[in-house]
Amino acid sequence: MSLPPPKTKPVTVPDFLSARSRGVKLTVLTGYDYTFARLLDEAGVDAILVGDSVGMVVQGHANALPVTLDEIIYHTRCVVHGTSRAMVIADLPFMTFQLGPAQALASAGRVVKEGGAHAVKLEGGERTAEAIAAIVRADIPVVGHVGLTPQSVHRFGGFKVQRQQEQLLADARAVEQAGAFAVVVECVPTELAAKITRSLSIPTIGIGAGPDCDGQVLVIQDMLGMYGDLRPKFVKRFAELGTQIRQAVEAYCREVREGKFPDAGHSFQ
Ligand code: KIV
């Protein structure tokens, strides 16, 4: 018995790899739950990143370091349930790949097998290349992440723009040579990000890296205006849902307190 065909053709690794030659920019947003995943998928985003930014925008930590592999697996499962077209990429959190290739492969295997992710992302360039290669050898697609790597926040002394040209180029090339099919480039000046993009054949996905990357990624709460703890320059707010949500909740509280809700139209006769 054959399976029914999917309603929409899922976005694949070859689609990412051919994006530049097709003249198509890749769109990626973070997502952590079913409701948002459905909305993002229906709106046509190419990939949903279950980022370890979940530690900040969902869990309320000051950075992503406390996030666990089990939490990423849980959120990945929620996102996969809401997705029929977008590729689901799961982040490997802090200390789930730094011990070496064997640990990295075991962690990546869990997010694919238990979470249902289509690909994994891990931070670091040259220092992570062996881990990337081990995961790729098991046929798990990998996205690299260079530039501002938020898991290194304490070494960087904060979330700062990264400008070390030679190291960043070497990191990006190491990620490509290790077999990654895309690389996130975070908080890098526009010209340097363009140079990195030109030096690679895999697509670059920029965040705070200017317009010349092959695609863009943003944290969903940031671009919808729902998270105000950090306001980096590169975040464009495409909506002000934070304000709308506050106003809606204020209206609800007012109507309940004044006995206006529920009215006959929202009650059973
Ligand atoms: O965790 C995350 O959301 C990320 C993006 C900011 C790229 O890594």
Task: Give a verbal description of the structure.
There is one protein chain. This protein has 269 residues and is of the alpha/beta class. It has 12 helices and 8 strands. It has helices spanning 13-17, 19-22, 34-43, 54-57, 69-81, 101-113, 129-137, 153-156, 165-177, 190-199, 220-223, 241-257; strands at 26-30, 47-50, 87-91, 119-121, 142-147, 182-186, 204-207, 215-218. Helix 3 packs across helix 5 (69-81), helix 5 (69-81) runs parallel beside helix 6 (101-113) and helix 6 crosses helix 7. The mean pLDDT is 96. Bound molecules: 3-methyl-2-oxobutanoic acid.
Oligomer: single chain
Sheet with the most strands, sense and barrel status: 8 strands, parallel, barrel
Overall pLDDT metric: 96
> What is the 3D form?
globular
What compounds sit in this structure? 3-methyl-2-oxobutanoic acid
Low-confidence segments, ≥5 residues, pLDDT <50? none
How are the strands of the biggest sheet laid out side by side?
1-2-3-4-5-6-7-8
Radius of gyration: 20 Å
Q: Structural class, please?
A: alpha/beta
Instruction: Enumerate how many helices there are, as a single number.
Output: 12
Distance between the termini: 48 Å
Any key phrases for this structure?
269 residues, alpha/beta, eight-stranded parallel barrel, 12 helices, 8 strands, binds 3-methyl-2-oxobutanoic acid
Break the fold down into its secondary structure elements and pairings.
Blueprint: H1 13-17, H2 19-22, E1 26-30, H3 34-43, E2 47-50, H4 54-57, H5 69-81, E3 87-91, H6 101-113, E4 119-121, H7 129-137, E5 142-147, H8 153-156, H9 165-177, E6 182-186, H10 190-199, E7 204-207, E8 215-218, H11 220-223, H12 241-257
Parallel strand pairs: 1-2, 1-8, 2-3, 3-4, 4-5, 5-6, 6-7, 7-8
Helix pairs in contact: 3-5, 5-6, 6-7, 9-10
Bound molecules: 3-methyl-2-oxobutanoic acid.
